[in-house]
Design goal:
This protein has one domain. With 41 residues, the protein is mainly α. The chain has 2 helices and no strands. The chain starts with a helix and ends with a helix. The longest helix is centred in the last third of the chain and has 19 residues. It is flat, with a radius of gyration of 10 Å.
């Protein structure tokens, strides 16, 4: 498994554990997606 895949899975686990609302989850997922895009460049 590549480092970016592991990073993405860790972010997903953190987001799912840390957010309480759908709106918060959307914002967290957006930030996670941006972080993954930056890590792959």
């Amino acid at each position: 498994m590549s480092k970016s895949s592991v990073f993405f899975l860790l972010i997903c686990a953190f987001v799912l554990a840390g957010c309480n609302t759908v709106e918060g989850m959307g914002k967290d997922l957006e930030k996670a997606g941006e972080a993954v895009q930056k890590s792959t460049k």
